[in-house]
Amino acid sequence: MQEWCALHPDLYGWVVLPLLIFVARIMDVSIGTSRVIFVSRGYRVLAAVAGFWEVLIWLLAIGQIMQNLDNPMCYLAYAGGFAMGNYIGITLTNKMSLGVVLVRVMTVENTDQLIESLKRSQYGVTAVEGRGAFGPMKMVFTIVNKQDLPRVIQIIQAYNPNAFYSVEEVDQVSQGKLGPRKFPGGLNLTQLFRPFRKGK
User: How many Cα atoms sit within 13 Å of 18 on the Cβ side?
Assistant: First the structure.
């Protein structure tokens, strides 16, 4: 590798090195974004591991920047990798679907079928009578794993398509029926991450 770099200094300095910095920056910012999510969700061990790799990769990238201060392509690669890393990191953490959410459903229509469908899907449900701007209404609340949110929204739209619903992140849940979170093949995701979570 060193011999190749010596034979092609311009190609290495203006193409290969900036590309390596770009990729390294994407990796460390993506890991950093995930680390913030782990911290907010209470996964202390995962946050520590992510922090180690984040800083290690950052040191390697910034070290190359400091050795090539006269190379503007390195600056552009560093900034571009930071921007792309934020996008990829947020996308990955959304795919991971960590945590739980509160779903509120408000409608003037009958909610019996909606409630029964949520119960059959093993979601806990609380229903109360309310009064809105246009008269009496029904309010249905359920707290579910974020991974299950698409399924819950699908149920809402199937039985009460005109209902208004909102989704809110929940920091802690003391007890309740959230339903198991599983990977394909039956691995329980809740059990997998439990050793990494902070004590309640």
Answer: 17
Q: Which of 2-16, 34-48, 131-145, 183-197 has the lowest mean pLDDT?
A: 183-197
Q: Residue 55 to residues 68, 69, 75, 145: CA-CA distances in angstroms?
A: 20, 21, 19, 31
User: Which run of H or E residues covers position 6?
Assistant: helix 2-7
Q: Produce one character per residue of 7-22: b if its CB has 16 or more CB atoms within 10 Å, e if not.
A: eeeeebbeeebbebbb
The DSSP secondary structure of 114-150, one letter per residue, reads HHHHHHHTT---EEEEEEETTEEEEEEEEEEEGGGHH
Q: What is the pLDDT of residues 63-120, one digit of tens each?
A: 988 888 889 999 999 999 999 999 998 888 877 777 789 999 999 999 999 999 999 9
For tokens 């994407």, what's the residue?
26
Size of the chain in residues? 200
Q: How far, CA to CA in Å, does 156 sit from each of 97, 101, 106, 110, 179? A: 20, 15, 10, 12, 17
In contact, 196 and 43? CB cutoff 8 Å: yes
The answer to whether 7 and 157 have CB atoms below 8 angstroms apart is no
Reported as type and span, the H/E element at residue 10 is helix 9-11
